[in-house]
Write a structure and sequence with these properties.
The chain is mostly helical. It has one domain. Helix content is about 65%, strand content about 0%. The N and C termini lie far apart (about 40 Å).
Length: about 350
């Protein structure tokens, strides 16, 4: 599946806070952390499409000789792009609400934002065929903008229908509209704004989705079916997301938050710069036309570690990531101050 990645950041958040704190902005930090978490899996999926052209099978015919490929295929592939797609729908709704308070024509502002995203996607396509910024921009215009006029009681059923249709056709890029609409619905129904009060619901959803994901993944390993893979990926995405939210509501979650939230706040910058690093360093690491998946995982870990450190350093001194700032300036057609007065 080619369309397995995207990294589109929401509006940058206030300073990092714990998800359990009585700060009304903590929910945004949770989204940033989810986005940063997804970015880690996205990079692992992207690298093979960017530089590794020798594919190794991890199915029964391979005798289980390539555990790193099985790890990517059954635990990572298709499990992280749904998180980004859902979060894009959430970000769309939050941005539209924010734009409505600042502009008489908020949808025109949002349209300009989507057009720039498409331009970035077209450029990125030259280095990473099958990237997802372009389809995100297209579906944003064709699906999310029209849906923003619809009442929530209509949007949610449409999301369910689109989700069922996306699975029936084998998932991939056709799941994006459904996940966009689910993200939009989550905001319209107040779910995003009340995450701290939904811990029990999140725990139940995690238990159910984790059990279902295990069964679906076992089925996926025993059969060759795009529909089964799509369903397993979606269930895995739900289990990963809800599991992370539960962890973030603990003391140990603070460590993950400090690492992942900056990654998520600069997701657009990190997503595009990771491609540049992979394309430049991959051949030097002997990955081009190779089957060194273990070496590829090591490269991904190094890139993410460097990006996590840089993101935290940058955001301590700036309000927005470099590309996020440029995206915001074009969106509002004005130069926005970015430098913080104090680090």
């Amino acid at each position: 599946m080619i369309y397995t990645s995207a990294a589109v950041s929401a509006e940058p958040t206030t300073p990092l806070t714990r998800p359990g704190d009585p700060n009304p902005q903590h929910r945004v930090v949770a989204l940033d952390t989810l986005r940063g978490f997804a970015l880690c899996g996205i990079l692992l999926v992207n690298i093979p499409w960017q530089i590794i052209t020798t594919r190794m099978s991890s199915g029964p015919e391979s005798g289980g000789r390539y555990p790193s490929v099985a790890l990517l295929e059954y635990l990572i592939s298709g499990r992280f792009f749904p998180i980004f797609s859902f979060l894009f729908g959430v970000s769309f709704a939050l941005f539209l609400d924010s734009a409505a308070a600042r502009s008489r024509h908020p949808r025109l502002v949002l349209l300009r934002r989507l057009v720039l995203l498409g331009v970035l996607g077209v450029a990125h396509q030259q280095l990473h065929p099958g990237e997802a910024l372009t389809p995100y921009a297209i579906f944003g215009v064709l699906v999310l903008l029209p849906a923003s006029w619809l009442p929530r009681r209509v949007v949610l059923p449409l999301a369910g229908i689109a989700l069922a249709g996306g699975i029936l056709v084998g998932g991939g890029i056709l799941l994006i509209p459904a996940l966009f609409l689910l993200g939009l619905s989550a905001v319209r129904y107040g779910i995003i704004g009340t995450l701290p009060q939904r811990r029990k619901q999140i725990a139940v959803l995690f238990a159910v989705s984790a059990a279902a994901a295990i069964l679906a993944t076992a089925w996926e390993t025993a059969t060759i079916s795009d529909r089964v893979a799509a369903a397993a990926g979606l269930l895995g995405a739900v289990a990963y997301s809800t599991g992370l939210l539960l962890i973030l509501d603990t003391r140990r979650g603070a460590v993950l938050e400090r690492v992942l939230a900056p990654l998520g706040r600069m997701a657009l910058t990190n997503y595009l710069t990771a491609t540049l690093v992979v394309v430049a360093v991959g051949p030097l690491a002997g990955l081009r036309h190779s089957a060194h998946y273990g070496r590829m995982i090591a490269l991904a870990v190094l890139i993410l570690a460097g990006q996590a450190a840089f993101s935290r350093y940058w955001l301590a001194r700036h309000r927005y990531g470099p590309l996020e700032w440029a995206w915001r300036c074009v969106t509002w057609w004005t130069r926005t101050p970015n430098r913080r007065t104090t680090a």
